[in-house]
Amino acid sequence: MEQTLLNNSPISTPIKFFHRKPTKNRSKSNLCTTAIQSQTSKPMGPFTGRDPNVKKPVWLRQKAPQGEKFEEVKQSLSNLKLNTVCEEAQCPNIGECWSGGGDGISTATIMLLGDTCTRGCRFCAVKTSRNPAPPDPLEPQNTALAIASWGVDYIVLTSVDRDDLPDGGSGHFAETVQVMKKLKPEIMVECLTSDFRGDLKAVETLVHSGLDVFAHNIETVKRLQRIVRDPRAGYEQSLSVLKHAKDNNEGMITKSSIMLGLGETDDELKETMADLRAINVDILTLGQYLQPTPLHLTVKEYVTPEKFAFWKEYGESIGFRYVASGPLVRSSYRAGELFVKTMVREKAKDIVAKS
C-alpha cells in the first residue's frame, strides 16, 4: 500500500495578502477554491486553495512508514512525550529515517519547546498560537536519555518559534545539548533553530553549548520572503543569524535549506545560494515544497529530479561543501550521513591541532 505524504519545514505562515483580479482562464480554479472555502472555517487568500492545473508527479509518492525499528522509535518518543518535526510537519521521509534508511543509521529530528509555534508561516503544517504552553523543564533531560538509549551517533534538534520567551528558547536548546553531550560525549548534535528574532546573544548561547552543526533555514528567495514566511522572519535577519553563528565560533559548520516550487526563478535561486556562500554557509539542502492543506500556499511548480540534480552540481561548484538536493529532501534529511559526520570530525581535529 502506498500513500502520498505531505511535508513542510518546522518554521512557520505570513499574513500579508496580495490581491489579483480573476481571469477567464482561472474560473475553474476559482470554483475549486470557493468549494473548499465553504467547507473550512478560515478564508483563503489568493495564493491558497488547490490548483487543479498543477498535478503531483509520480516521483513524490512514498510508501507508508512501517517496520520494527520504525515502531520502536515511535513508541519510545510517545512514552517520553517527545515531539518530532518528522510527525508534526508531515515529513515524507519519516519511514526511511526512523527505519535506518538501509544503512543502519536511524535518524529522528526532535522538536523542542513544545509542538505549538508562535508564528504562522504560510507553508508550514505545525499548529500555532500566540500563547503556547510553557516549556517542559524536564525536556532536556528526557530528550537526552531517549536519544542515548537509541544508540544513534548523530541527532538533529529543532524547535517551533517561541517569540514569547525572552531568549526565543536558546537557553533550553543549549541545556539539551549540554545534557546530551554529558551522557554521550561522542554523539554529534545538529541544531536547526529559529532566528531568535535576530537576537545575536541568543545565537551565541547556542553556538557555545557544544553543538556540532548550526542550521537555520532561509526557506525561499528574497522576493518571496513576505509571501511565504511570517512577517517577523526576514531574509537579511536569517543571513545575519547564520553569519553570526559562523563568526562567533571558529570552525562552526553552518547549514541552511531552501524550498523549491513556490514561484522562484533560476536567477533568484542562484542569488540566494550566492548570498549563503558569501557568509560561508557549508551545507545546503534543496527540496520540493508540498502544500499541507488548502489554507496553505499553492505549489507553483513540481521541480523534476533532473533539475534538482543540476542544483546539487551547481551548489557544489560555487563552494558549498555538501549539497543535498531532491524532491523529497528536507532540512534534516539523512543529516547523519557519512560526509557530514566526516566534516564534523575534521573540524574537531583542526581545533585540537590549533590549541
Question: How does this model look, in words?
Answer:
The protein has 355 residues and is an alpha/beta fold. Helix content is 36%, strand content 12%. The strands form 2 sheets. Strands 3-4-5-6-7-8-9-10 form an 8-stranded mixed sheet, with helices on both faces. The protein has a two-stranded antiparallel sheet with strand order 1-2.
Short description:
The longest helix is centred in the C-terminal third of the chain and has 17 residues. 36% of the residues lie in helices and 12% in strands.
**Residue runs with pLDDT of under 50 for 5 or more positions:** 1-42, 101-105
Tally of alpha and pi helices: 12
Helix/strand structural class: alpha/beta
If you compute it from the alpha carbons, what radius of gyration comes out, rounded to the nearest whole angstrom?
Answer: 20 Å
Large-scale geometry: globular
Physical arrangement of strands within the biggest beta sheet: 3-4-5-6-7-8-9-10
* Relative strand content: 5-15%
Mean pLDDT: 79
The helicity comes to 25-40%
Order of helices and strands: EHEHEHHEHEHEHEHHEHEHEH
Q: Whole-Å distance between the termini?
A: 55 Å
What labels would you give this structure?
355 residues, 12% strand
Write the layout of secondary structure elements.
Layout: E1 2-3, H1 27-37, E2 62-63, H2 68-79, E3 83-84, H3 85-88, H4 94-99, E4 109-112, H5 139-150, E5 154-159, H6 170-183, E6 188-192, H7 200-207, E7 213-215, H8 225-228, H9 235-248, E8 253-260, H10 266-278, E9 283-288, H11 305-317, E10 322-325, H12 338-354
Parallel strand pairs: 4-5, 5-6, 6-7, 7-8, 8-9, 9-10
Antiparallel strand pairs: 1-2, 3-4
